[in-house]
C-alpha cells in the first residue's frame, strides 16, 4: 500500500512538472523570446499621445458612502456643538441626484516596428495617484485580442497584464484621477516580454489536485471508516490553496474589521500598528492580479511593516469576551512577529490559525456524528465554509462551534430514552456559548434543550432547574446585546450618539430608531420580515441569488446550490448497511423547524436594526452563510425518510468526497488561481 | 486513568464547588472592577489638501495645548495622559527631556493668568527613549485632579551636556527650532486650542497638534464569563448530581 502511494506521488509529481514546463510555458519554450521596452515619457516618432476629460458614474454603494459620511459629519458637528463645513472634492460632479467622478483619459499609441509574442505586458512609472489602463493590441493595423485591463497602484508603480498574444503595435488608454494640470508620470516605461517562469503556486495547486483525486479513487477502508481524517487532510489542502492563492488581497466580507480585531488581540496592552497593518485595517492594501504584481505588492508591504515607526495605542490586557474567537488568528500574527516573518507570511500564518481551529472542531463534529458522518462532512466541506476558514474572519469558528454543539444535541434527540449525560451537556452548552460569544443571536439554538422530553431527565426537579439554567444563559447572552458590559475602545466617541449608531454603509440607519419603528408597527414589521425571509429563500431555490461563493471573488450559479442541496439530501436520506437507522421523531422535528424559523427571524431582525434604514420595506444585508449553523438541524428532520442503499460505505463516501472536492477545486481554479498566473 | 475515573465519579462534589466559585467570581467581578487604559484618537489624520506640519520646541518655544478632558463622553473614565506625535530631526544628537506641565484653567482665563498658578504636575520624559515620528504616550501625575478644563504645556529641556556646549558657544542656540517638535495639522478638534509661546508672547497655532487622549476606566473583564459559567456549571451540576444519585439508588436496590 505504502509503495503504491509512493509511486503514485512520484508519478503525479512528474506529470505536474511536465505540465508546468511544456504546457503552461508553451510560448516561452516554442515562441521567440524578444523583449520590447520603451520609455513613453521621452519623445519618439513611434509614440503619439492625446488626453481628454471623462465622467464616470459612481456605484450606488460609493454614492451611499459619501451621503453617509456627510450625514455623520453633520451629526458629529451637532454633537460637539461646532459648525458643519462641507469639504469639497473637485473631482466629484453631482448631476440629477447622481454622483460622477471626473477622470482624465490619456491615449498613447506605440508602434513596435515588428511583431512580438507578448506573454506579459508591464506599464511602470512614478505614479502619484491610483489609475488604470486598457491595452489594445494591433497586428498589421487590425485589432487583436479582447479586452485587456489593469489598475495601477502608486504604491507599487506598475500595472501588469497577462497577454499571451502576438502584436506589432498597441494603444495604452490610461485613466487617472482628475488634476487641473496633468502630465504623464516620470519614467513611464512599457515592457512586453515572453520569458520562461516556473510558477510554484500553480505547480503545487495542480500537484495537490491530482493527489487528492488520486488518493480518493485509490482509497480502501479508511475513507469509509474514518471520513473525519479525510476531511481534515482535504480541508487543509483546499484551505492552503486558498490562503497562498489569495495572499494579501482582501477579498472577504468585512475582512478588515476582523483583521483589526485579530491583529490587536495579538498584542498585550500596547498595540503597535505598522503602516502596512494600518492599510490592512483600513482595507487599503494594494491588490495584485498576477504573480509579478504580487511580488511588488509583497515587497511594498514588507517595506512598510516596520515596528520602529509603528503607531501606538492602548487596550486592556484582558481580552474582551467577544474577541476571544480571534485567538487562533491572533496567535498567527504573534508567531509571525516572534519569528520576524515577512508581512505576507505572517498574514498567511494568521489565516492558518483560523483554518486549523476550524479543522479541529469539525473533525470532532464529524467523528461524533456516527450515523450521519457524511452529512456533517458535506456541511464541513461547503466551499463557503472553507473559504471563510481561510480568511481572517470569525464566522467559520462561530459556525464550527455551533455545528459541534448541534451534533451533540442531535445525538441526544436520536436517543430519546437515554438520560442527558453531564459531559455531553457541558460540551454542548460550551460549544453553543463559544459559538454565540461574537454573534449572541445564535444562542437561541440552545433553547432546543428546553424542549427535551422528560424521558431525558431523571426527575422533575432536575428538569426544571436545568431548563431554568439554560433560559438564564440564553437570556443573559441576549441581554448583553442590548446592554453590553463596558468595554475598552475609542469608538465610543461616536456610539454615544444613538442617532449615529448604525451601519456606515447604508444611509438612514439608526439602532434606536429602528427598534422604535418595530415596536410601534409590529404588524407591518411582521409583514416585512416574512416577505423578506420568503423572498430570500425563493431566490436561493430558483438561483436568482447565489449561495455558493467566495465573497468578493465571485459566486457560482444556482445549479451548484442545488448540487449541494442534493448531496445534503443524499447523505441524509440514503444510508448504507453499516449505518444505524435512527430518527429524531415528529415532536423534535417540529421544535427543530420552529427553532430554525425563530433563529432565522432573529438574524433578519438584527440585520434590519443594524443595517437597514429606519422603516425600510425590505431587509437587506442577510447572507446565506449566516444559516450554515442551522443546516444540520434542518437535514436531521429528514432522518425519518432514510432508505438503505445497496452500495458499500466506501463507494458512497468516495462519491461524496469526489463531488465536494471537484466543486471546491473548480471554484479555486476559477476564482483564486487566475490572480497568480 | 484511575485518578480521572475517581475524579469523574465524584463530579457531584466538585461540580457544585465550581458553580460556587463561579458565583463568587461573578459577585467579585461586579464589586472589584479593574483599571484599563483606553486610547481615543482626537486628531490623527489630515484632511484632503492638508499635510502634517511641525510645531517647534526648543529656542524658548513652548506649546500650550488647551483641552477639556470630559467633552468626549460621560463615562470615558479619568484622563491620565496624552499621546502626541514627536518630531526629532537628528535623533542621536538630541539628549534632553520633553517636559509636560499640567495646569488647571478656569473659564475665561487667559494663558498668562492660569500659567501664573503652580502647575498641577510636571512630568519629564527622556527624548533618548523616544523615536522620531512616534506617537509617544505621556502619562501625567495627579490625574484625579487633572480633569475638566486643563492646559498642557510642552517644553524642551536640554541635557547638561547640551547646556555646557551652549555656554561655550553662547551665540548658538541649544537646539535649533526645527530639531524637536510635535506634529500638527490644520484640524482644530472641538474644545481644544494650540498656542505657541515664544519669549513671553502667545501666538495661536493655525491648527492643532496631532493627539490621542488616554483615559483610565473601569473594566469588568470577568463579569461576562463568570455570570454565564455560574449557570453553565449549575446546569451541569443538576445533570451530574441526579445521575450519580440515581446510580447510587440503583446500586443500593441491587444490593
Short description:
With 677 residues, chain A is α+β, with helices and mostly antiparallel strands. Chain A has helices at 2-23, 26-30, 60-80, 200-218, 222-225, 227-246, 255-265, 275-281, 291-303, 327-338, 343-368, 373-380, 383-389, 395-414, 422-436, 460-482, 492-495, 511-520, 522-542, 558-573, 585-611, 631-636, 649-672, and strands at 36-39, 47-57, 92-95, 98-126, 131-139, 142-152, 158-177, 186-193, 270-273, 311-314, 574-575, 643-644.
List key phrases describing it.
A: 677 residues; alpha+beta; Jelly Rolls; 8-stranded antiparallel sheet; globular; B: 255 residues; 6-stranded antiparallel sheet; 5 helices; 13 strands; elongated
Detailed description of the structure:
The complex is a heterodimer of chains A (677) and B (255). The relative contact order of chain A is 0.10. The model of chain A is unreliable at 488-504 (pLDDT under 50). The longest helix of chain A has 27 residues, at 585-611. Chain A has helices at residues 2-23, 26-30, 60-80, 200-218, 222-225, 227-246, 255-265, 275-281, 291-303, 327-338, 343-368, 373-380, 383-389, 395-414, 422-436, 460-482, 492-495, 511-520, 522-542, 558-573, 585-611, 631-636, 649-672, and strands at 36-39, 47-57, 92-95, 98-126, 131-139, 142-152, 158-177, 186-193, 270-273, 311-314, 574-575, 643-644. Chain A starts with a helix and ends in a 5-residue tail after the last helix. With 677 residues, chain A is of the alpha+beta class. Chain B is an alpha+beta fold and 255 residues long. Helix content of chain B is 30%, strand content 35%. In chain B, helix 2 packs antiparallel against helix 5 (223-254). Chain B is elongated. Mean pLDDT of chain B is 82; it is low at 170-175.
Amino acid at each position: 500500500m505504502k509503495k503504491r502511494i509512493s509511486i503514485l506521488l512520484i508519478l503525479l509529481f512528474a506529470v505536474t512538472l511536465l505540465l508546468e514546463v511544456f504546457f503552461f510555458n508553451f510560448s516561452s519554450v516554442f515562441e521567440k523570446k524578444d523583449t520590447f521596452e520603451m520609455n513613453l515619457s521621452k519623445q519618439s516618432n513611434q509614440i503619439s499621445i492625446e488626453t481628454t476629460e471623462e465622467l464616470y458614474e459612481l456605484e450606488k454603494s460609493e454614492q451611499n458612502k459619501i451621503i453617509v459620511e456627510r450625514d455623520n459629519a453633520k451629526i458629529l458637528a451637532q454633537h460637539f456643538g461646532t459648525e458643519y463645513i462641507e469639504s469639497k472634492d473637485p473631482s466629484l460632479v453631482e448631476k440629477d441626484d447622481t454622483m460622477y467622478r471626473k477622470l482624465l483619459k490619456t491615449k498613447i499609441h506605440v508602434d513596435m516596428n515588428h511583431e512580438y509574442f507578448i506573454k506579459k505586458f508591464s506599464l511602470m512609472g512614478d505614479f502619484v495617484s491610483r489609475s488604470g489602463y486598457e491595452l489594445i493590441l494591433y497586428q498589421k493595423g487590425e485589432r487583436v485580442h479582447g479586452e485587456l485591463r489593469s489598475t495601477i497602484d502608486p504604491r507599487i508603480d506598475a500595472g501588469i497584464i497577462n497577454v499571451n498574444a502576438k502584436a506589432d503595435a498597441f494603444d495604452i488608454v490610461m485613466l487617472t484621477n482628475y488634476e487641473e494640470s496633468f502630465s504623464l508620470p516620470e519614467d513611464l516605461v512599457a515592457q512586453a516580454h515572453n520569458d520562461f517562469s516556473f510558477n510554484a503556486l500553480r505547480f503545487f495547486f495542480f500537484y495537490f489536485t491530482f493527489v487528492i483525486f488520486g488518493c480518493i479513487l485509490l482509497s480502501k477502508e479508511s475513507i469509509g471508516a474514518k471520513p473525519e481524517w479525510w476531511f481534515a487532510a482535504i480541508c487543509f489542502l483546499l484551505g492552503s490553496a486558498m490562503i497562498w492563492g489569495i495572499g494579501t488581497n482582501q477579498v472577504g466580507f468585512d475582512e478588515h474589521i476582523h483583521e483589526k480585531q485579530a491583529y490587536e488581540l495579538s498584542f498585550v496592552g500596547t498595540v503597535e500598528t505598522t503602516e502596512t497593518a494600518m492599510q490592512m485595517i483600513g482595507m487599503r492594501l494594494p491588490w495584485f492580479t498576477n504573480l509579478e504584481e504580487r511580488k511588488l505588492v509583497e515587497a511594498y508591504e514588507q517595506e512598510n511593516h516596520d515596528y520602529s515607526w509603528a503607531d501606538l495605542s492602548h487596550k486592556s490586557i484582558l481580552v474582551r469576551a467577544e474577541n476571544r474567537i480571534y485567538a487562533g488568528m491572533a496567535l498567527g500574527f504573534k508567531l509571525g512577529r516572534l519569528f520576524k516573518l515577512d508581512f505576507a507570511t505572517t498574514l498567511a500564518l494568521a489565516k492558518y490559525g483560523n483554518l486549523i481551529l476550524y479543522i479541529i472542531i469539525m473533525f470532532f463534529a464529524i467523528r461524533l456524528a456516527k450515523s450521519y458522518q457524511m452529512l456533517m462532512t458535506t456541511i464541513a466541506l461547503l466551499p463557503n465554509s472553507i473559504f471563510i476558514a481561510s480568511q481572517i474572519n470569525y464566522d467559520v469558528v462561530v459556525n464550527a462551534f455551533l455545528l459541534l454543539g448541534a451534533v451533540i444535541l442531535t445525538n441526544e434527540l436520536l436517543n430519546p430514552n437515554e438520560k442527558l449525560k453531564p459531559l455531553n451537556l457541558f460540551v454542548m452548552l460550551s460549544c453553543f456559548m463559544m459559538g454565540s460569544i461574537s454573534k449572541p443571536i445564535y444562542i437561541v439554538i440552545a433553547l432546543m434543550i428546553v424542549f427535551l422530553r422528560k424521558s431525558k431527565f431523571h426527575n422533575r426537579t432536575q428538569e426544571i432547574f436545568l431548563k431554568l439554567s439554560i433560559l438564564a444563559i440564553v437570556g443573559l447572552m441576549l441581554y448583553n446585546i442590548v446592554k453590553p458590559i463596558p468595554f475598552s475602545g475609542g469608538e465610543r466617541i461616536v456610539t454615544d450618539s444613538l442617532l449615529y449608531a448604525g451601519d456606515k454603509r447604508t444611509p438612514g440607519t439608526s439602532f434606536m430608531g429602528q427598534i422604535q419603528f418595530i415596536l410601534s408597527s409590529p404588524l407591518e414589521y411582521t409583514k416585512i420580515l416574512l416577505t423578506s425571509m420568503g423572498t430570500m429563500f425563493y431566490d436561493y431555490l430558483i438561483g436568482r441569488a447565489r449561495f455558493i461563493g467566495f465573497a468578493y471573488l465571485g459566486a457560482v450559479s444556482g445549479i451548484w446550490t442545488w448540487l449541494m442541496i442534493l448531496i445534503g439530501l443524499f447523505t441524509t436520506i440514503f444510508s448504507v448497511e453499516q449505518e444505524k437507522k435512527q430518527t429524531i421523531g415528529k415532536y423534535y422535528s417540529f421544535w427543530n423547524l420552529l427553532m430554525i424559523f425563530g433563529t432565522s427571524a432573529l438574524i433578519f431582525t438584527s440585520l434590519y436594526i443594524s443595517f437597514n434604514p429606519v422603516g425600510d420595506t425590505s431587509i437587506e444585508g442577510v447572507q446565506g452563510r449566516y444559516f450554515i449553523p442551522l443546516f444540520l438541524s434542518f437535514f436531521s428532520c429528514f432522518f425519518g425518510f432514510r432508505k438503505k442503499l445497496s452500495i458499500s460505505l466506501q463507494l458512497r463516501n468516495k462519491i461524496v468526497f469526489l463531488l465536494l472536492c471537484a466543486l471546491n477545486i473548480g471554484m479555486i481554479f476559477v476564482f483564486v488561481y487566475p490572480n497568480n498566473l | 486513568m484511575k485518578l480521572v475515573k475517581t475524579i469523574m465519579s465524584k463530579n457531584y462534589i466538585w461540580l457544585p464547588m465550581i458553580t460556587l466559585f463561579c458565583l463568587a467570581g461573578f459577585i467579585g467581578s461586579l464589586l472589584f472592577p479593574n483599571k484599563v487604559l483606553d486610547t481615543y484618537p482626537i486628531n490623527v489624520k489630515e484632511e484632503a489638501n492638508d499635510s502634517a506640519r511641525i510645531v517647534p520646541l526648543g529656542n524658548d518655544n513652548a506649546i500650550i495645548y488647551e483641552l477639556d478632558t470630559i467633552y468626549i463622553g460621560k463615562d470615558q473614565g479619568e484622563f491620565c495622559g496624552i499621546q502626541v506625535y514627536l518630531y526629532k530631526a537628528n535623533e542621536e544628537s538630541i539628549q534632553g527631556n520633553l517636559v509636560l506641565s499640567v495646569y488647571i484653567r478656569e473659564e475665561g482665563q487667559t494663558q498668562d493668568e492660569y500659567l501664573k498658578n503652580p502647575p498641577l504636575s510636571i512630568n519629564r520624559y527622556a527624548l533618548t527613549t523616544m523615536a522620531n515620528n512616534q506617537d509617544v504616550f505621556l502619562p501625567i501625575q495627579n490625574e484625579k485632579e487633572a480633569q475638566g478644563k486643563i492646559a498642557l504645556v510642552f517644553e524642551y529641556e536640554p541635557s547638561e551636556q547640551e547646556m555646557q556646549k551652549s555656554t561655550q558657544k553662547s551665540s548658538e542656540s541649544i537646539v535649533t527650532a526645527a530639531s524637536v517638535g510635535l506634529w500638527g495639522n490644520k484640524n482644530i478638534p472641538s474644545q481644544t486650542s494650540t498656542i505657541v509661546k515664544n519669549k513671553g508672547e502667545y501666538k495661536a497655532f493655525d491648527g492643532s497638534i496631532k493627539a490621542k487622549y488616554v483615559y483610565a476606566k473601569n473594566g469588568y473583564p470577568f463579569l461576562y464569563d463568570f455570570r454565564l459559567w455560574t449557570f453553565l456549571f449549575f446546569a451541569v451540576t443538576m445533570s451530574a448530581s441526579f445521575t450519580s444519585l440515581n446510580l447510587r439508588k440503583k446500586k443500593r436496590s441491587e444490593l
